[in-house]
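Q: How would the structure tokens look for this protein?
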Amino acid sequence: MCTTVLWLSCVSLLFCGSLGCYQCFVDVEDSLRLCWGHVLTENNVRNVDECFRKLDRIFNTNETVIESGRVGEGYDKNLKEILDAEILPLAEEFDQKLNDESVYETRLQTAADNFIAAASKLPRVSGCFPPCVEEIEVMENSRSRMWCEVPFDLPSDIEVIWRFAEEINTQEMDQFKEVTAGVDRLYSIPSTNLQHQGTYQCEIYSGGRSIVRLYYYISVTPQLVVGHTELQEIFDLSLLPGGELLSAPDASPRSFLLLLPFLLTTCLTTSLLLLFLSLGALYWTSVSEQRHPDEGADEEGD
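A: Here is the predicted structure in token form.
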């Protein structure tokens, strides 16, 4: 059971980015030996829980320790060796012995500083360090699916919570609102609209503790924009230099249907324009004849 807990803690380091290397590489038994004699100065009382909180503050949630532990693939063994070299001698020294909390504070902080200095010299991880945001582009009114998948087996008592931050691409927790909670690791949107654009967060809990946090950013392309773009491209490709329409050999029926309304509108507009020009010419001819009806009679009299 302890091995499982430690393994899950290590996984949470990789996917949550919120834990240090201590929980990954130091056995629970060694931590108990280390904290057995932790004594609170004010009450002169042994308090192991306070020692574990001190370890959590100095190692597990220390951003400098976390950053120094972000090494390249295959260098995790080096991290364990560095941490063991700092923690195991302390566990041996403090085992079954009482020590004031100030001693713990000083010695553990020194161990953390030594770990940071040594781990920072290792090759660094490249690319995006989890949790990364996976970007998904979808067409308006199409289906969207997001899977909360991880490359390891999950416990049987998981709870999955999906959250949504509208329009923005973010990982800030205060920007999200909970949308579903249960055991379903699939989040599906049957018909994606512009209101669905934004960041979706999937978080998996086991025993009340977060072990996985993943992010997806959905950008939605309006269908009207897509239709206009495709129509313009088809029309541009279909025109010869002389203005004649060229039938594309690979044109699909859908492309033809998109082009048909444009052609009908053009033909109708041209026909109406010719009709108006013809009516105008007839009108001006009639007016001209009515304006000079006596010119021919005067010429015959002369």
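The chain has ten helices and ten strands.

The radius of gyration is 37 Å.

Upvote if useful.
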